Amino acid sequence: MSEGNVAADQLRMLIERIERLEEEKKGLGDDIRDVYLEGKATGYDPKIMRQIVRLRKMQPHDRQEMEAILPTYLAALGME
Strand, helix or coil at 78? Predict the structure, then answer.
């Protein structure tokens, strides 16, 4: 087997792995969407649920800093 064939086989394997992972990611995205729809069906606001998920991913000090600065920005834009 030539070096070119080995490189082509390796590339094909990598691409196929990426394709499988992309399919898994799509499936997980569909599952997440279904959970938000389930929340909506039980009376929760999906937009707020998404915001809470985003906030929970943040480090506490980053979230506190954002919460401290946000009112200043809102006031500066006349939104408060």
Answer: coil
Return the half-sphere exposure (C-beta side, CA atoms, 13 A cut-off) of residue 55.
Answer: 11
Is the domain of 39 the same as that of 72?
no
Same domain? For 39 and 50 the reply is no
Q: Which amino acid is at 13?
A: M
pLDDT in tens, 42-78: 999 999 999 999 999 999 999 999 999 999 999 999 9
Cα gap 40→46, rounded to integer Å = 6
The one-letter amino acid code at 25 reads: K
* Pair 1, 34 in one domain: yes
User: How many folded domains does the chain comprise?
Assistant: 2
Note the pLDDT tens digit of each residue in 23-51: 999 999 999 999 999 999 999 999 999 99
- Residue 33 in contact with residue 25, Cβ under 8 Å? no
